Amino acid sequence: MKRRAYYCLLAALLGANLILGARIYLFSAQAAPARDNPYENYKLLADVMEKVRNEYVDGDKLTYQDLVHAALKGMIGSLDPHSEFMEPSRFDNLKQQTEGEFGGIGIIVEMGKDKLLTVVTPMEDTPGFRAGILPGDEIIRIDDKSTEKLGLEDAVGLLRGEPGTRVSITIHRPATGETKRYDLKRAVVKIPTVQDLNDKQEFPLGDHGIGYVRVNEFGERTADDLHAALEELQAKGMKALILDLRNNPGGLLDQAEQVCELFLKPGTSIVSTEGRGMTNLYRAHSRGRRMDLPMVVLVNSGSASAAEIVTGCLQDLQTQTHAIVVGEQTFGKGSVQSVLPLSDGSALKLTTAKYYTPSHKVIHERGITPDIFVPQSPEEEADLRLKHSPGAMESLDEKTRQRVASAHDRQLERAVDLLKGVLLYSQRNAPATKVAAAAR
Fold first, then answer.
1. What tens digit of pLDDT does each residue of 74-105 get?
2. Within 10 A of 100 (CB to CB), how many other CB atoms are there?
3. CA 221/CA 176 separation, integer angstroms
4. pLDDT, position 431
5. Which of 18, 108, 239, 279 has its CA 20 to 30 A from that of 4?
6. What does the alpha-carbon distance between residue 16 and residue 19 come to, in Å, rounded to a whole number?
7. Would you place residue 26 in the very low, low, confident or very high pLDDT band (cuts 50, 70, 90)?
8. In the chain, what is the straight-line distance between the N-terminal and C-terminal CA atoms, in Å?
9. Of these residues, 269, 301, 305, 335, which one is catalytic?
10. Does residue 391 surpass a pLDDT of 90?
11. Residue 383 region, left (φ>0) first, then alpha (ψ -120 to 50), else beta?
12. Could you give the C-alpha distances from 43 to 46, 53, 300, in angstroms and in order?
């Protein structure tokens, strides 16, 4: 009797479990298509837009384009930090940046303390530089518009424009307490992506035959400009090179590849990209005479994307490049962003793949680890930036001016010392090498 009751209870439990499982399955089967049904979700988006237009207090001031663009910004921005929806003006700015020139007044700005629009540096021989705008100046108005609640992207859009058009900016200079208005005429501003130690394009040769080149970003002419700089330094008798990629945010992938080609034998792997169902391997092509000298690559946490591709490649292939990486861990942006133009002049910048170094080390979210770690504090970096910014010293008080003037670039000094040691070692072993070769 007890056994029969036990079997009845077991059968009831199994039946209940079967019914419950079936209900859960049916609910899931109905819910899943709704989550991934394009037409139902398009309808939801359209319903929300109509409710905003009809019920929102200022809905009559909104266009459908305003709402769609806002929705696209939120959608693409939620994917990852590097994907974005670019309105036509933002897309135009991106194209101008990669092309290496644009219409503007020639000042680099950032959001400084208390979200104030602050001048980082004026670029030489530009309207802003000639007018006397200084690093540290706070821009409080552009034309008649306050910058208090203006985003960096919007501010840059207001400062740029067609060459020959005018813009006025009102600045507050914290060092003196002065407030001043500048009326400026926009001009064509060329962005040099390759510079020497003095922020020019003269490329003097340093002591012991050590050359120095800084690559600020990877624009459309970066590889050609770097090639020209290296040719000039080699004509002057360069024996070793410092390639400075610090604070380089990246840029165009093809330019990173072409920069690597300057140091590699044809056919050598440079980088691979892996995305959804696709793998691409990029190999070096001949770019004329290959540079075959001892080299230090300087990097820090501001070195990202294309700068990390170059660093990882040169580090992996040290037997060819003779490259020693010095500085700090790089940023770790090893993903590929494809720019997809849209019909209304806007565009999507969408992450489509990830980068891998020749030895298949992943860059994304890890970065490149230097061979020799040389840290530098944010305060030291800020002082060095002021030291090399045109006109910056004039805006500082005497105590700060003395501190900035005595600032040392410890990473650069370490690079110079390393190359001096390598060159000295090579010179001491050169006679022995020649004797051994003659004996053979």
1. 999 899 887 889 888 778 777 766 665 678 89
2. 17
3. 40
4. 56
5. 18
6. 5
7. very low
8. 103
9. 305
10. no
11. alpha
12. 5, 15, 48
Report how far residue 421's alpha carbon sits from residue 37's, in angstroms, rounded to the nearest whole number.
66
**Number of neighbours of residue 81 by Cβ within 10 angstroms:** 9
pLDDT single digits (tens) 29-70:
455 567 888 888 889 999 999 999 999 999 888 999 989 999
305 is catalytic: yes
Distance CA 223, CA 259 (A): 5
3-state secondary structure of 195: strand
Domains, the chain, ranges and CATH? 104-190 (2.30.42.10), 194-375+409-427 (3.90.226.10)
Q: Determine phi and psi for 82, rounding to 5 degrees.
A: -110, -10
H/E run at residue 280: strand 278-283
Block residue for tokens 């000042």:
107
Write down the catalytic residue from 137, 244, 316, 383.
Answer: 316
Percent of the chain with pLDDT over 70: 86
Q: Is the pTM of this model over 0.85?
A: no
Per residue in 160-214, pLDDT (tens digit) is: 888 899 999 999 988 788 899 999 999 988 778 899 998 889 999 999 999 999 9
DSSP 8-state secondary structure symbol assigned to residue 80: -
Beta carbons within 8 Å of 40's beta carbon, 6+ residues apart: 34
For the question of residue 333 being annotated catalytic, the response is yes
Name, in order, each residue with C-beta under 8 angstroms of 346's C-beta and a sequence gap of 6 or more: 69, 85, 86, 87, 88, 90, 91
Write down the pLDDT at residue 225.
Answer: 95
Catalytic entry in 333, 349, 383, 409 = 333
Asked if 291 contacts 274 with a C-beta cutoff of 8 angstroms, the reply is: no
For residue 224, give the amino acid letter: D
CA angle 81, 86, 91 (to 5 degrees): 120
Residues paired with residue 272 on neighbouring β-strands, in sequence order: 281, 356
The angle formed by the CA atoms of residues 237, 239 and 242, to the nearest 5 degrees, is: 115
* Residue 338 falls in the annotated catalytic set: no
Whole-angstrom distance, CA of residue 261 vs CA of residue 254: 11
CA 19 to chain centre: 56
Residue whose tokens read 């050590």: 210
Burial class, 82, CB count within 10 angstroms (exposed 0-12 / middle 13-18 / buried 19+): middle
CB of 316 closer than 8 Å to CB of 284: no
CB 299 within 8 A of CB 373: no
CA 29/CA 335 separation, integer angstroms = 35
Distance between CA atoms of 258 and 256, rounded to whole angstroms?
6
